[in-house]
Amino acid sequence: MKDITRRLFGKTVAAAAAASGLSFPRFASGQSTQGVPHPSGLRYPDGFKWGCATAAYQVEGGAHDGGRGPSLWDVFSHTPGKTHDGETGDVADDSYHLYKEDVQLLKNLGVQVYRMSISWSRIFPKGAGEPNPAGLDYYSRVIDELLANNITPYVTLFHWDTPAALAGGWQSRDTSKAFADYAAYTTRHLGDRVKHWMTTNEFVCFTDLGYFEGSFAPGLRLAPGPVNQLRHHAILAHGLGVQALRANTPAGPPGGRAENAVVMCPIIETPEHIEAARRATRFANAPFLTTVLEGKYPEEYLKHEGANAPKVEDGDMKAIGSPIDFLGLNIYVPLYARADSSPLGFAVEQQPESYPHMWSPWLTIGPECMYWGVRNVCDLWKPPAIYITENGTSSSDVLKPDGRVEDTDRIMYLRNHLTHLRRAVDEGYPVKGYFLWSLMDNFEWADGYSKRFGLHYVDFKTLKRTPKLSAEWYRNVIAQNAVL
Ligand code: GBH
Is the pLDDT reported for residue 24 higher than 70? Predict the structure, then answer.
């Protein structure tokens, strides 16, 4: 209480209050809300699953341990000038060694589910050929540890760490085939305990960003024709992966994918703009999600790409369109669409320079993206189930001498996003769970360790994990099954 009083009446707050003309309210003494069911309407339905997400290269470290082969991200991050301060995932959070501690972090939050990814080059150090039993054994131990703590693993087979030994990477069709073999082997060996699989994470990040923009591994800038072809190899890998996991797991466990579909919000919530946002969603996701869920490339896309359109072989589209049991959506940011009289029937609004964003400049704030992300996808394609497989934010996070990280901005971001997600749940869209990105600060790709997304602060020198204020907030959200 002493601490609260000091903080509430601290200089900064007093000055801010004075400046805004506020007077201090009286304390209602002796009243505690602890243990009282949350009275507002912001509850989630019973059985809704709360979780956290991470990815192998971002947290594991142990780059040379247990026979792991290098991935394109090892090569890229070790190339001067590619990542912030030349940082790499060599050590990251060292979850390779500290996974038991990390499972305890999850347990303390009270999550029911955990989304993690498997490093392909731990299982197949050369991407194909001989498997590495030590790699499989590592994941087997992680999964056992999760299950022993009553946490259900949701496993992504590929979160961008393409084995470096695969010649040509995603430019080669053989990589799709190698992925299918890896998916078959891994699901065959872990499918007795893992019942929820995702094939690949976010197509655009390992295709366009890696081979067109060059900002992610492998850092190439190819022409549109080759890029469309490797996009095709990526969605083909997903489809062959779905087939492989269906064929190789005894119970035919739910299989899905995790996709950062472009989210289009209607600029004004009126029928014509809602329709525009739906059209824009189908168009903006044409080479990836639209094709995967429709089992064919949209005509407009093929027409638009002309001679650069991908070359498709017999059977490809059938594989690509393989039915999935759930769709994972990674949702962070909105775009805004409006109806217009162009042939496409929509336009995307420019965002002004003053549009607010979180600590990462790309992370613009528009929490209604949670609602529209779900609604557009469901209205267009009716997937049987949806999980939010990622949502979260970076923050400037300072670990204070008293051990606290006061990430009020992260709580603001999450609270608002969960509020809008609940609207989708209320309206009956089949949202089954939510995975917060991320359990702890980790290797943020090209941004290295300069952007922190965790509920736990990681001191990257000592690897000590410290829960932030947002971890306490999320623990309460989970316990009450409500937005708090
Ligand atoms: C997710 O991608 C990833 O799945 C996850 O691994 C990652 O840690 C998390 O987001 C947070 O970033 O710097 O302007 O070039 C989200 C989609 C695509 C957003 C790449 C950032 C880079 C923008 N990301 N994008 S920029």
Answer: no
Contact between 444 and 429 under an 8 Å Cβ cutoff? The reply is no
* DSSP-assigned letter for residue 268: S
Q: Is the pTM of this model over 0.90?
A: yes
Q: Show Cβ contacts of residue 26 under 8 Å, excluding neighbours closer than 6 positions.
A: none
The residue whose CA is least distant from atom 8 of ligand 1 is: 444
What whole-number distance in Å separates Cα of residue 197 and Cα of residue 185? 13
Angle between helices 408-426 and 369-381 (to 10 degrees): 30
d(C-alpha 194, C-alpha 256), whole Å: 13
Average confidence (pLDDT) over 203-220:
98
Q: What is the pLDDT of residue 380?
A: 98
Out of 58, 207, 257, 360, give the residue to mutate to test ligand 1, the one with the largest number of ligand atoms within 8 Å of its CB: 360
In this structure, the residue with its CA closest to atom 23 of ligand 1 is: 362
Q: Which one of the listed residues 60, 87, 368, 390 is annotated catalytic?
A: 390
pLDDT tens per residue, range 339-391: 999 999 999 999 999 999 999 999 999 999 999 999 999 999 999 999 999 99
Percent of the chain with pLDDT strictly greater than 90:
88
Pocket of ligand 1, beta carbon within 6 A: 55, 58, 201-202, 205, 209, 215, 260, 330, 332, 362, 390, 437, 444, 453
What is the arithmetic mean of pLDDT over 239-244? 95
**Count of helices and strands (H, E) across the chain:** 18, 13
Active-site residue, from 60, 202, 259, 368: 202
**Annotated catalytic residue 259:** no
